[in-house]
Amino acid sequence: MRDLSTDTHSLSINTVTLRALGGLENIVHACARHGVPAIAPWRHEIATLGPARAAKLIRDAGLVVSGYLRAGFFAGDTARRQKIRDDNRRAVDEAAALGVGCPLVVVPGGLPQFAQPGSRATKDLGAARALVEEELAELLPHARAAGVPLAFEPLHPMQAAERGCNNTLGQALDICERLDPEDSGGIGVAVDVYHVWWDPELAAGISRAGKRILTFHVCDWLTPTRHMLNDRGMMGDGVIDIPAIRRLIENAGYRGFVEVEIFSDAWWAVSPDTLITTIRDRFRRFV
Amino acid sequence: MRDLSTDTHSLSINTVTLRALGGLENIVHACARHGVPAIAPWRHEIATLGPARAAKLIRDAGLVVSGYLRAGFFAGDTARRQKIRDDNRRAVDEAAALGVGCPLVVVPGGLPQFAQPGSRATKDLGAARALVEEELAELLPHARAAGVPLAFEPLHPMQAAERGCNNTLGQALDICERLDPEDSGGIGVAVDVYHVWWDPELAAGISRAGKRILTFHVCDWLTPTRHMLNDRGMMGDGVIDIPAIRRLIENAGYRGFVEVEIFSDAWWAVSPDTLITTIRDRFRRFV
Predict the structure, then answer these.
(1) In chain A, which residue's Cα lies nearest the Cα of B157?
(2) Complex ipTM more than 0.85, yes or no
(3) Local confidence pLDDT in tens for the 287 residues of chain A
(4) Smallest Cβ distance to A157: which of B156, B239, B241?
(5) Which residues of B touch A125 (CB under 8 A)?
């Protein structure tokens, strides 16, 4: 297992963590100043500059783009289908413009009324899951042609209705294997400790995933958790045995960036310099 | 599948739902007045009267005890082990005093520092799970001798750290099968739609469970959910397809009570008469 206490190359920060900085340029400069080697930006942050200028900004600051957030939110009424597809293809094109092989994180979305507000309300989680798989299959050829690997992310079961109807690594891998039985590399998974740490089948899932693991996210699970979306913890402040999961991931062959993604009202209220300093410190000690 | 729109025999109310009534006697009288045929009480409610007098109170009101809450919270420091065992055996004895064959719900508990406050803090979920199985094995002979079936309840993954480190029906059944390979009936599962509705393996799990399903709990999953423990929804107010799950349960052979268990700050603030009337109505329409 890599020794992250001295490693200065493996850290990436998902920019949602730094959203208090108020935009891509501030984030890039802050990360460069703190010696953070990589970031994973979101679409809305790229929108102002456009992907080509954003890519140049990031590159000129000496940073790498470790991933792009995000495509998905597939389930919706039939009338919305083409709009959803077009939007996801644009996300692929943006990821392609951001850098060679930059994985695009795909979050499935939940039931149609939450994935695409205004869609007819339903309780049929199975139908939403079937639609996610169908639309992933639809998106995959475009992503392959663009050279953009799709990193499909199973979400914690508490997000099943609202944000992600695929809730275990095993379920995500079933889909990958059906869509890409030859393991030719166009589709894999995003493993986020926050979503998967509780899973009794986690070790088996990670071992089965092997080189399908395209990106690895860390944060921590707080007790109590006060908000289902925006109360993630800083590494070391919660109950997740992050090194144990990283060991599994690395035993499965993963050698990519370890991306810190912390949705947190509490950390968004802290000065960004303190936040980045804390991330660097905790990364060395608790990841 | 039973027709609950006209069924007057299958409803049970878990007394936590009615905790605003302030004690067992009020709960029993209110349920009798509203024609609720069964309740599932908690240990602290029985404590004042003692199990024998509580049983008589319930029986004299014409009610049935459908289950008893709860044993478990197994993980803790070695020094606490005997105290935990003794307490769980007392729970078994109380369940035996409450009625013939009354299932005792067993909630595993989470990591030791949460299951038994004061215990050494750890992130080892696997060790907590192993301990739960060990202690279930320890409790089982006592429960069998007392004629009390243990209904082991897997809890939603969002409760893994704090309340229940066993998080899928499959995982609970693995334990049942290891402890009781002959399926002789002393140990089974409690299936609560709130905990399991998201599980992609749910249909397979229920079918595999068969007669090991000892109790079935309903409520609903709200979007958004504002509190991880006390924001459960009334049936019909959320996204769970309860009849679909009940169909699976009944196809697996279950014919027992359908128990309404709603931890909810919102519903605890409503007048108990309104609450029970609402439960009866929603039970007919959404269960």
Answers:
(1) A198
(2) yes
(3) 999 999 889 999 999 999 999 999 999 999 999 999 999 999 999 999 999 999 999 999 999 999 999 999 999 999 999 999 999 999 999 999 998 889 999 999 999 999 999 999 999 999 999 999 999 999 999 999 999 999 999 999 999 999 999 999 999 999 999 999 998 889 999 999 999 999 999 999 999 999 999 999 999 999 999 999 999 999 999 999 999 999 999 999 999 999 999 999 999 999 999 999 999 999 999 99
(4) B156
(5) 197-198, 239, 241
DSSP state of B142: H
Q: CB of A73 within 8 Å of any CB in chain B? A: no
Return the SS3 of A105. Answer: strand
Question: Residue B123: its chain A contacts at CB < 8 A?
Answer: 239-241, 244
- Is the CB of residue A245 less than 8 Å from the CB of residue A197? yes
The full DSSP string for A10-61 is SEEEEGGGGGGG-SHHHHHHHHHHTT--EEE-BHHHHHTT-HHHHHHHHHHT
Mutation choice for B interface testing from A171, A175, A218, A223 by most B CBs within 10 A: A223
Residue A124 contacts B, CB cutoff 8 Å: yes
